């Protein structure tokens, strides 16, 4: 008898070798196998008599092989197998390329089903490389067929067969993670039916019923998991900070805080004094001044006898934070250190020793902060910048570092991307949120233009003029994609910079790309910030958080390739000083959709508005960059289309948790198990 935990080798035709290949897809047990959902479907239901085949349509015919297939070698690497198949209405000429084995497999006088695209020329009917299966098999043809993501050694038909057997063996054993009341209350189908139909749908309607249930389930478990995490964190006690007056720090700033900044600092001060561990997200638009809010939190932590850590996603950013914060904080006798992967071993050792002796109050760094040898004797606050680049897991890894006995450090997360509210509730369901929707006064509106490449000459002339007035410019260059190759960003950026140098021979052009060593990048960035270059040509590495107030122009080539939120980030690199600033989006893509997207950028500078639009147009996968949100990959849910369902699922999850917070009731056992599994997966999610 099969059980859910039974090894996949239980399935006929799966031996050691294939089991290994399947393991690469995360499939080890029957449960894994049937939870491996298709990435798409192909409708192969249409069957025809040969005579009915229309040119260009995809359909199957059942026909008998009329004579033994022939096999011929046209040239090296090109071998043909040809045959003629017949049914009661006509004949079909079938050609296979490089599938020599079919000559012996397809026998004269036997009937097969051929599925493919029909070619009709006069009375001749043909198919090239059709799918073939024995008549009556009904596995690859005659139905809606799942399309799975594959790996070497695992083909579609192997998976289809395996999943079919897996379902037969254990679809009735599947425990339902949805409590019965929730399932009924939201008119969701049974779990067994959902699994069956998500793989082998009887039709569109059945598929959508199955999908709706599984999406709901996914969002429900995620919402419940994050909610539990938050309850758990919020319940954690912390020594309340006695002194939550940030005025001495603020007095040293050359500006006064905006209302939004003041409110955020107020939220933080209240959290820190509350006796509970802070878990707060600062959701602020680009340029809204999140760094100063972080500085205030750090200042309060150190003032109350704690150490603080500030984690940035790139060494450039860490370096910038250090350069910006250290002078300010050291003036208040806060000792700052910088730890990136680029730090030489000896210097690193010395820094960590000082940290261990408690002689460093603030350590700024990249995820190098997570290394095993980094130990804080009294870590009281963790700040992560540009949070969407870190996983939920990395967040908690860092806060685990600070755990002395029972006490977890306070956590402050700064998000670079304004996030639509619906999404924030799911993505950051484990955090309290302060929204910063206000820019510092006097901020220049950034004039944004979307133009075609024919403007390039004029744009370069404009750059030249701005530089003549002492400004600097960024050019984000296109990634040239070569067929079936990863785009080579080094080459693209290098070539672009060289070409631009030809056009502007008297200007100093620097180059920055993601293949450079962190140290090199930092040097280039530092030099650019110091004014040693006029133009910085880069791939998107410039995107996050850079602050060069003298820069006034951002040119983005192939702008259609970026998400709106990403463009907004890029645009946020300029307009940070007193100078009138410009963002020029170049695109030769003339699709309606992409034009409309770029128009959004010219219309508004409001990051929240752009985020809503971006989410609507692109979906959350792209919105955050692949796998960058740090949440467990959602298998099915599309947070854009499924926004309504998401809200339903969240409410349902909260209702269940209100009744049974620890999910101890027997009817919640499977739900609890799946949540644990989900959160474990996500704690492994690194970028
Ligand atoms: P972001 O929210 O994008 O991280 P930053 O913290 O980098 O923004 O701040 C952007 C710029 O605005 C910095 O140069 C910072 O010094 C400046 N700034 C921050 N707060 C204020 C303020 N209240 N008034 C004027 N300028 C400010
Ligand atoms: Mg920032």
Report on this model:
Helix content is 39%, strand content 18%. With 687 residues, it is of the alpha/beta class. The chain has 4 domains: 1-45 and 143-173, no CATH class; 46-142, OB fold (Dihydrolipoamide Acetyltransferase, E2P) (Beta Barrel); 247-274 and 288-415, P-loop containing nucleotide triphosphate hydrolases (Rossmann fold), CATH 3.40.50.300; 446-604, 3-Layer(aba) Sandwich (Rossmann fold). The strands form 4 sheets. It has a 7-stranded parallel beta sheet with strand order 12-13-11-14-15-10-16, with helices on both faces. Helix 7 packs across helix 22 (643-659), helix 7 crosses helix 23 (669-683) and helix 13 packs across helix 23 (669-683). Mean pLDDT is 86; it is low at 620-632. Magnesium ion (MG) binds at residues 290-291, 385, 545.
